[in-house]
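Fold this sequence, please.
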Amino acid sequence: MDRKPRTRREVLRAAGVLTGGAALAQLGVPAIGTARSAITLASLERRLGGTLIEPGDATYGSAAALWNTRLSINPRAIAFCQSVSDVREVIRFARERGWPISARSGRHSFEGYSNASGIVCDVSQMNGVRFDRAHGTVTVGPGNNVLSIFNNVILGAGRGILNGSCPTVGIAGLALGGGLSRGLRQHGTLVDDMLEASVVLPDGRYVRASAKHRPELFWALRGGGGGNFGVVTSFTFRTHSTPDPFVFGMTFDWSKAAEMYAAWQTLAPAAPQTLASCSLRMTRTPPTSGNGPYVLKASIGGLWNGTQAELEDLLAPLTALGPASSSIEKTTYAEAWHPDGCTIGPGGSLTCKPAVLYPNYQRSDFFTEPMPAAGIDELIAQVENWPGGPGSDEGGVQIEALGPGSKSNAVAPGATAFVHRSTLYHTVYLNFWGEPASEAANVAWADDIYAAMRPYASGQAYQNYIDAGLESWRSAYYGSNWKRLQRVKRAYDPQNLLSFAQGITPGR
């Protein structure tokens, strides 16, 4: 039964006035069956509590926009769902008409796979948060992002949760792809704290997935990647206590970058779990003003939950290199964990700078063996070659320690769908440029630095940093878990309704 009266706007849309073939063609949207599509979309719109946006609507451009401005993907419709009922209606619509459908939350898919060419099921408005103090758990809607999780859980409830560093990343994509985050050496990945998920399946059923209820689906949701098995409408996570950590950092002259890397990869992955996180960055950034030279930066930083004396002993090999600057500071949990670009003001209020979006193409690697000197030198040379260009942000590498001392590596590769459990560290090749004319050079650079690391990297890649240029993506993202994931897909989405270029396909 229709839930909304027929409006003049719907009549015009049904007649093709608002979404005519010419308008669709200008937006790059297939115009086949335009009038027929408009009529069927009007039917869907009346059934939604949320909002349906189509090409020709004034807000379509902003509704279709993605975090990665290199990409422009124009769906035939975007449904901003507000309830489980809305999600079920969108899935039913797509299933009955054979339209491509994708699930979307934070719009941070590196390759824009959350924007289907057909209809997008956007859950960003489903952002409730419910904290259970008796059990130390929190249940969150998929529309929450890193910022809202920080505000509601860490600041609001005084409990810890593994969270990303970019404030606008959606919790749904972060969790479903594994959830690498600050604190992973001490607490594991975000999927290791997932206790339950509520899901609308491609056949329209609304189900719970946990260790007791549909355990195979629950296994797949913990690292199998977003948009593969259904649309998640809530997650329940375990939370942690919030001890005040030491925050530390060091910067080095570029001439010492190789020594810094060698010392860091020896001490950080082998450190105890009290080294909650430790990252290394080597970047090239545009001049701060005028036409000066690009700036090369080398640094390490992290969080420590032991004593200061123990931390100083751990960092001694790096200190012996003579850093340009060094700091160790005891701070609050909230200060240590707040998202990048944000500050905590008086009264605990969080203020964040407006997001600046860049076109980008980033790739990733997991390393299971220490990098030899030749590899370190090659990596440094590649960072020095980042082309950037006018209006660019930065290029280089950010590397996060895991290693045998980490809680993440204590989990068996097959215990969850997140298979990357035997790694020393994870590397992302940063690459944010400015103008369209710089795209070709920067994309080529990303391919070059990735190719240069083939003799040293494991061949595994982080599924949350999804990469259209990755040929062996099935083994890179999922390794020995791929076949099991295909069986789960066959059980819950045998028609492959939720599909995209690097999506999991049904199999045996």
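The chain has three domains: 8-122, 129-241, 246-469. The longest helix spans residues 34-47.
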